[in-house]
Write the structure tokens for this entry.
Amino acid sequence: MSEVPPIHVALLPSAGMGHLTPFLRLAAMLVHHNCHVTLITTHPTVSKSESDQISKFHSSFPQVNQLHFHLLPPSDASATKADPFFLRFEAIRSSSHLLPSLLSSVSPPLSSFVYDMTLISPLLPVADSLGVPHYILFTSSATMLSFFSYFPTVSASLPTLNDVEIPGVSSIPRSSIPPMLLVPNSLFGNIFNEDGPKLTKLHGVLINTFEELEAQSLEALNGGKMVKELPPVYAVGPFVPGEFEKEDQRGAPLKWLDDKAKGSVVYVTFGSRTAMGRDQMREIGEGLVRSGSMFLWVVKGKKVDREEEEEGLEGLLGLELVEKIKERGLVVKEWVDQREILDHEAVGGFVSHCGWNSVVEAAWYGVPIMGWPLGGDQKINAEVVSNKGWGVWNKDWGWEGENVVKGEEIGEAIREMMNDESLRIKAAEVKEAARKAISVGGRGEVTLQKLIEKWNKF
Ligand code: UDX
């Protein structure tokens, strides 16, 4: 009897750490399930932090012979449009015709193709021609997926729309709709409008979430009221954050945390894309000092980097504030490995923009969240956290740049989070459920296993 060739899955992420990270984690899970994985990215629009992350992932991975990498050529789109997301989108669109010959020649033969949620329109015709089942990885929450699929139904009436009532899912207030969707003809608005109706053409949607976190949305998406419009939704999360660096490579932030009391430190960061203005940065600094907690604050973003290059942290925040900060906190400018911070027992709270990967990581490590959603899907994600009872967020703070939230208010909100025992208890429950979901026999693990068996039969 001839031997069945191993499963081979091609993965194609979009730009940004928030998209690349879950693809790398999915790759690791698939390799762990004995699949081969080909990861396709583009050059040179892969940013420094992305290529660092890919090579770190590559070199730290033991089953290297099961992992293959392929770079698509760069886009000839105008270099003046420097937004990495746009460039990646264009690079993928302009070189998608290369995929059939690339993917038909891989060894072992291709079993399935998983691409980013934002790439349905450019990749659907190609994916259809490959003769294998194809899926998107939706890199946000299931609640956001329900909004994504429902958006074209309401988009024509957006100027006058109030709350969006999604069948079977809680309603999304107008104030939580991603602001970029309210701008006529925005890149994302067009993607949502064009791609929502195309979901039915996929073999399914993979998503980094788990039943206990989003039961209601998952039920609505899978066999609930939204079933007619959607292919199967596979909740294969939470994606395991992965292995850490060796002991002797632990960076300064971890060493700083080492002598702090259990649960005493607030970790503050706003994801990989956000760049706050100077006024808001100063108020955050004031708020952290007023909160009374120790804190680890990752300050980054294009605006801040530029200003810092010219004038340093003292110039940005003022000498007096920097002195006060030094008494209670550590400010870090470079990229830190967030997983390691959230895993540290000194960390007792997380001030987060609620990017979905950050939310799932906080669930995995059982850390309470004070959500400060700033754009995109983040208010919808923050609501998932607060519904679950392991986090809070202030709905009056608006989107990034709408208001400058005062230090007094920020300090008070952090103090409330750090003193709220119920958040801590809920966070521990969510952590337990997260780990159970992907342990042997857990729902996420079984779902992934069944999917792989399906590819095998195909
Ligand atoms: C964005 C959206 O907010 C997210 O919901 C969407 O689905 C993908 O795009 P982003 O803003 O980058 O993502 O945030 P997040 O989803 O939290 O992803 C950031 C990733 O980078 C996380 O895995 C986080 O652990 C990692 N990170 C971030 C670090 O390791 N170090 C840092 O200093 C900052």
Q: What stands out?
A: Residues 16-19, 21, 139-140, 269, 271-273, 298, 335-339, 355-358, 361, 376-378 surround uridine-5'-diphosphate-xylopyranose (CB under 6 Å). The chain is about 45% helix and 15% strand. The first strand starts at residue 8 and ends at 12.
